Amino acid sequence: MQISGKNINLGLNIVLSILLSAVYLSLHTVGYYDITLRSLAAIGLIPVISSALILFSTKEIRMAVMTLVLYQTWNMFLEPYTWKLPVESIYRVFNNADFFEMALVSDLSLFALYIGFIRSFDKINAKPFFKESYMSAVKLKKIVLWMIFGGYLLGGLQIIFNLIGLPFGFIGLIDTMLPATVGAVFLLYYLRGGRNVLLTILVVCYMAYYFVYYVGGTLFVYSIFLVLAPTVVYIVERRKIPYVVLGITIILLLPIYMTRHNYRNEGLHSTGAVRMAIGAEILINEYSNISIDRWKQDYDKKQGDYNVDNRTEGVSYLGQVVNCHKRNNYPYLWGQTMAWLPTMILPHFFIPFRPSQNMGDAWAIYYKLKDPSWNASINFPMLVEFYANFGYLGMIILQFLNGMLIVWFMRKFNDGLGDANLLLLIFIITRIVVVEANVTLSYGAVLQVMTICWLFKKIVQKRA
């Protein structure tokens, strides 16, 4: 097969992926679960490694997206079977007897996702919203300014709508997707020769604000997006991966990564100035008191109970839902959780009776994964959602279709070819790669961006 002009020997790629997964298994010869479950975890790693190898060869944005989706799914639903301690939960009830079939179907689902993605590369020919065109540094400068001030304008409108009780929610998109995209556009401006000092100061202050904001909310993944989005632009523009810069960035982020859980109760539900103050406090505390010994103590402390309600594992989550259906006679939902997805092209203002975007909480309460009195929100992972709707077979089929859908999403933005397409694609990638969110939450945001693009093309460009 050919990707971005490079011939990929898929057979050799798969053989190498199998060998590397065997190496992974050899490094996990001891664990709480038997060799069968650990082997299934290693087998599930094959499509992840295959996708990563293609990424390193092609430097292709589509493969970067797919590798992230595959890895996160594997990490949640298969990696825990290699732990030295059993998966445990204070709140979730599951049966270890279900683990073999859960692991087997999770494997098949990963392969289905991979095959659906790879097979669709040359099969889906969706017409992109915008043509492949490239902008000058002058135009990119204007876009950066429009994005920054437009984001604050939308945020102000959101506050007004909240005060008068109108359901018109878009502040979430601004807080999670816009800052990373601003950083990406600015880097593109710089790579095209832009050197305006005032703009540089403005963007640095803007990015610093959101970095502190994310740190204050212990939202480490969004801090990563601030780095990831510009990195994608660099890879596409220069056709090489900045390993040194990425390595230095990872080292610099270590202090807040290693200690983020120490501040979670205080920061997660904070907002505004309070969150900023918490973020500043965390940065001052951690960077003025860097101690590898303290990190090791924190790490060792977490390792003592890392297997209990670990936020990154989905085995207990899936296990509870499977248990509800198999032993408590819960009926399958037959698409109920995804039925509202087509309506997401319209804001909540036009469909006030549509359920709010806390659907993950609602279904978590239904499956007794969350007590109604809890203030903390909870995600409803996509793979679990597929099971809840259509059982094990649904996990496999819908993951195959999910791979095709991701390709279609990216084709609508010309696979990132052309500045407008690349920047919009980066804007939606932050939703595509979050596999721990439910379908309507993740892909609903993508559909909203696509709707805006469609309206722009039909109204603004047509008049021009």
Give a written overview of the molecule.
The radius of gyration is 22 Å and the shape is globular. The protein has 18 helices and two strands. It is mainly alpha-helical. The protein has one domain. 39% of the residues are buried. Strands 1-2 form a two-stranded antiparallel ribbon. It starts with a strand and ends with a helix.
- SSE string, helices as H and strands as E: EEHHHHHHHHHHHHHHHHHH
The dominant shape is globular
Distance between the termini: 40 Å
Number of domains: 1
Over the alpha carbons, how many angstroms does the gyration radius reach?
A: 22 Å
List the helices and strands and how they pair.
Blueprint: E1 2-3, E2 6-7, H1 10-26, H2 35-58, H3 61-77, H4 99-120, H5 137-164, H6 171-176, H7 178-191, H8 197-216, H9 220-238, H10 243-259, H11 264-267, H12 272-287, H13 292-303, H14 315-327, H15 359-366, H16 382-412, H17 419-432, H18 439-463
Antiparallel strand pairs: 1-2
Helix pairs in contact: 1-2, 2-3, 2-4, 3-4, 4-16, 5-7, 7-8, 7-9, 7-17, 8-9, 8-12, 9-17, 14-16, 17-18
